[in-house]
Design brief:
The chain has one domain. The chain is built from 6 helices and 2 strands; from the N terminus they run H-E-H-H-H-H-E-H. With 175 residues, it is mainly alpha-helical.
Length: 175
């Protein structure tokens, strides 16, 4: 787990260490929650609230909730693989992380889209893949730079994970 005795010492000094799979799960939860909410907000910002619209908004809230849980689960699963890539060269990591990001986006988008009468599973990945490509690649670089022994301090993880997802959400909203 540790490459050097110094790395083991540094990991032992962490107050609230978070393993890589939990770190990627937190990222998955954040990008499964905020960007979809931003997309739905952008679509319905100027909509008149009627009974039909209210039903759709409730349905989109359910989609958002499912995307959050799916993002968390996929982040946890893929986090273990990304950590192995972080141990390889930078070029290998940059080559393979986008494929893992696409897997996350396709799966999370499809699962979230299933809530929208099933046919949303075909459209969900088109929204989720661009978000996951940016978020997972940026997070993988930052995680690799900051992690020690496969662990990252919680005080570093949360601002990075939420910062990435909220920045993407701001771009979606045009802020």
């Amino acid at each position: 787990m540790f490459r050097t005795p110094k790395e083991e010492r540094e990991t032992g000094l962490m107050l609230r260490p978070v393993s890589a799979d939990k770190a990627y799960a937190a990222l998955g939860l954040a990008i499964g929650t905020f960007p979809p909410a931003a997309i739905f907000t952008k679509i319905f910002w100027n909509a008149r609230i009627e009974e039909e619209t209210l039903v759709i908004l409730i349905l989109l809230f359910a989609v958002n909730l499912v995307c959050a849980f799916a993002g968390y689960g996929m982040g946890r699963v893929l986090g273990k693989t990304v950590v192995e890539l972080e141990r390889k060269s930078w070029s290998m990591m940059f080559l393979l992380v986008p494929f893992l990001a696409m897997a996350w986006g396709i799966t999370t988008g499809a699962i979230g889209g299933l809530v929208f009468f099933g046919f949303g599973a075909f459209f969900g990945p088109f929204f989720a893949v661009p978000v996951s490509l940016v978020a997972f690649t940026v997070f993988a670089v930052l995680h690799r730079l900051i992690e020690t022994g496969g662990m990252i301090e919680r005080k570093h993880l949360l601002p990075i994970a939420f910062g990435i997802s909220l920045t993407i959400s701001a771009f979606i909203l045009g802020l």
